[in-house]
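ok so I'm stuck.
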Amino acid sequence: MKLPIKFILAVIFLVILGVGAMVFTKIFNPAPFGSNEDDKYITIKGVKPKDLNVTAWATFYGGGENCNSWTFSADTGNVTKAAKDVIKIEHDFSENENSYELRIPYKSYNTNCGMTLYSVSFKANNKFDEVFASFRTARGAEVSYRTLPSTVHLESRNCNASIHKWVEIERWSGDISCDFYINNKKLQGDQNSLDMDFALFNDSTVIRYDIIAGKDYRSEPMDPEVGP
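replied:
not stuck anymore, here's the structure
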């Protein structure tokens, strides 16, 4: 049976249109970092309440004679060849709403400034609180007994909401606070800033960080005028 020319042309047109759409999507809506085989990343992952959103920032610094970027120091008044870049990571690779997986770039990428990973910051938020259960890990000036291995198990436990009324202005506010643990040891105060040996990072590095809701955890937003 001989197919009509118009039908054949229509099929060819649809194939070309489909290929064009795929190319267009790839160019203007690229896959998130960590999706490609050549991407170099460490992983931060753990359990979390299902309503929680997680975000990380990787901060890179660089410099040198070949660097085409300049930095001014307000303290010394000096201008040096240096650069800073902050990469925001929001894509969650976990397919389970009760867990998360972020993939963080860690390799120096090829620029004239020789950019090197300096720190990774992490935060969680939901509709009630814009930021809580945060931590930051940085490249220490030197490896010491305070330098944590990347195999460390971090936890924010007892994440509970507290609500306050400001009598003077008749407004309500609230936030969520958690107890921070390192390898089952509770840290006192605000000590969730950690040093790690970034030189040991590789494609298999996984930092485990679990965020665990307490009995007074809250997901619902709060009206500052009406209150809870």
